[in-house]
Each structure stands twice: as structure tokens, then as C-alpha cells.
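Convert to structure. Protein one:
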Amino acid sequence: MRHTILSTTAIALAACMGMSATAGVRHVNALGAGTGWYADDVRTSAGVYLNGTNSSYQPYFQGALASSTADDALIAQQLYFTDTGTASGGGSGVMVMDGTTGNAGKTSVRYYGAGAGIGTLNSSFSSSFRWYSDPYSTSRTVALNFLVLGNNGLKYSMSWLGTGTQINAWNTFSVNADTAVVNDNGWRLYSNGAPGSAAGAAKSLNGWFADATYGSILSGATVVGQGFNIGSYQRYCRVGIDWLESSLINNGDRVEFGIVPAPGAAALIGLAGLAGSRRRRN
């Protein structure tokens, strides 16, 4: 966990060796090829799609929209990382998904890794994440999402909404293939290749695998990416994602979002603590 207290000796040694102080944890503080996390469906308050040169996942647009560094800058206004607690987090490092002043914006982010698919969609899937909901005039529940290459060659977007969101508080959501639909919240399927009325239904993941139309399409399909979104028409909504655990990402180990000290800086902090401890003992 982020708030576990470690000895300064352990921190210094881990930093000097170029390792995370917590085994298995991956820290993410930027978008792009360096982390495998990308913006893919970010829209301005006027509903204009943004395709950044570095921050966007280019295959998502399939050449339909030119990329630009100007769009990178605009994306960074809606999707960014912080450890200050000034936005969505109360002092804990987060990836902020910020709403827009208009009423047609959207923010979406996914882990695509190297772009060859991150795993297979099946009944062994499980995921948990911790997030903060800021007390804006309106609010959104963060959706967990997939981009899936179906067994029929078509791409499908799937989004899961949990229940019981607390505003101005931390929320921890967990889901697996058996998680039941509650208050019409569950996995929803979206695609140009899916009829809207049928795809609009919410089901558990195993429910989709058993579906007469989509079961053979989705079961065992390739998951191109997994991430988060706060939906279209997200006016005055802002959330912060603290961490994610997924059976499809980082071997199931935790992904921590937010700015972390560089290894050299962490080592200096640890050594300074050791020095202070020695002075107090002398």
C-alpha cells in the first residue's frame, strides 16, 4: 500500500539498486510508450476529438484523425498525474480525469502495453481499483473499460460500472467474471458491429460469455486494452485514480498512479534519514 511506512534503510537500498521499494508494484506517472498507458477517446467541452502525438494511442484512430502536440497539451488539461493532493486525492498520488466546462466532453485512458494485446477475455478475469470522487456540482462513477478484438474480427468496447460511489471520498471497487448486475450497473457492450438495443443491456462478464449472440464473439477474444473512463457529457466532473490491480496488467500486481521521486532523489531522502537517525543516537 502507498502509506506503508518503510525504514529509511530499505528505501535507500531499493532506490540505489534502481528497484521499487514495494516488490511487484509498477508506478505510472505519464502517458505514452514509456508506460503503455494512453489517452484514446478524449474530447473537448465542444465534443472535438483530441489525438496527441505522444499521449494518444494512434491505432485507436486508424489514421482518421491527424495527431498534434497541440492536442497533447489539451489532453493534459483533462488527463494528468499529481502527487500534491490539489485535485482528487487528499494528498495521495493519483491520475486525474478532469471534466470540462462544456457538456460534450469525455476523458478515457487505457493500458495498451506494446500494442499486441494484453491478454485474453475469459472467466478468470478480476480487477480492483481505488479512486476519489471530487465534490463537483455533478459527478460520475468511474467506468472500468475494455477494448476487445472479437473472434469475428470486429472491435468492441465494454464498460463496467460499480455501485455505491461516495462523493468527496475514496472508493474501492472490485469486479470479476461472476460479479452480478446491481441496479442495472454491470458490463455494457458498445460497437458499430453490435445492435444498440441488445448491447445496451448490462450483464456480468460470464453473462456475456453465455449470450447467444455475443458469447462466441467475446469468450477467448483478445483484450487490446483495459482502462478507465468517466463517460460522455461529463460536465464539472473530476476523479482521481489511486491504483489498479488487474489480472491482465503487470501480472496482477498493483499499478500505482501519480508522480514518484526519481531513484536518485529517493536515495538521497533515505540517506538523509539515516544520517539524522545517527545524529540523534550520538
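Protein two, convert as well:
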Amino acid sequence: MTGRASTLSPKSLDYLPGSTAAEKRSLAKWYAAARAALARNRPLTTATTPTSDRPRASDLSAAEAAALRSVGAFKDETPIQADNDPLIRSQAQYMALLEESLSAAEAAKLLHVDVSRVRQRLRERSLFGIEYEGSWLLPRFQFERRLVIPGLAQILKALPPDLFPLDVVDWFVLSDSDLQLDSDTAPLSPREWLLSGRPVEAVVTLARDLTRA
């Protein structure tokens, strides 16, 4: 959780264009599931909201719990159609990504550098950021403890520059069959591969292949 006000609020849900009560409930549930995935660097594409794994009020801030309750997110009232709407899911995931990301100042504090250095790295694409309402937000997948994951700058420069932020995040945390040492081990995600100290070039190659696709 960052120090910013929560992206999800009763007001923000009320102003979603054309949203029905069921759609707002679905949005709130997908938002909570996405935040849980992002907090653990798990793929957004596999984040779900099954009945047994729905968010509990005790897991959220007071403001978030109030926003979820206001649209009935803790009730079994959302039609299947709304829960399976890809537009609602993407919208909720993007809201969650903004909320879970670090501001430039927070990233600077984490890395023990001046905020101007963070902005410089964003411009040169050695850090990944989302420009939102005139400010930079930096998704957490690229950090581990107080460090940037190894090889990040090389990989970001190899990735297509126009990838949607949700796709960038999922690409880094989804396992890839090309990042598997042998048939007896599970494939790793680019993030896991880099944190394990394996060759950066293997991930750079995947990023370049994505550019050519």
C-alpha cells in the first residue's frame, strides 16, 4: 500500500460510465483480486475472484472496504456475465496497478537516490513507469527489497515501447517455457529468472522476439 489516496472509492465507482450495480460489484471484486496478485508479483491474467478466495474487509484499508461494501462486493449478487466481462476486468486491474505502484518519490526513497535520478532513469527507460495525471507511477515488479532487478534496463530497451502497462507487468511475472533449465523443473518467469542470477541475455532475447512478433 502506498501513501496515496486509494484509487478505488465509492465516488470513483459512481462515475463509471454506464456501469450497473452488478458491473460495479464485479469491478470492485476484480480490483481486490488484482491488488492481491500485484502485491505478490503474481500474474494478473491468472487473478480470479472465486467465492472461496474473495477479499475480506479485514485485508483492506477502511476506505477500500467501504468502497467495496458500497457496491456489495462481499455479497454473492454479481451475475456471471458481469464477472466475466473482459473490459471490467481490465479496468479493475489497471486501477489496481496504479494503486499498487510507487510514486517517483517513493521509488527514490526505496533505492536511496534523489527523485531526479528516478525521473532520469524513467526517461532513459532503465526503469518502467506509467505516466498518470502528470505524475510517474512505478510498478513494483521491477524492485526486489531495495534494489532494481538485474538486467532491467537491457530488457526494457528490448521490449516494444508501446506495450500496455498491464501486458508489461504480466510479461515479467508469467512463467515462460523458454526459461526452463530442464524437464524436471518448472519454467520461471523473467522476473524469477533474473533474481536467480541466470543470464540476462536469455530474457533480452525473449523481449526482442516479442518486438518482432
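The mean pLDDT is 82. Strands lie at 102-103, 130-132, 135-138, 143-144, 147-148.
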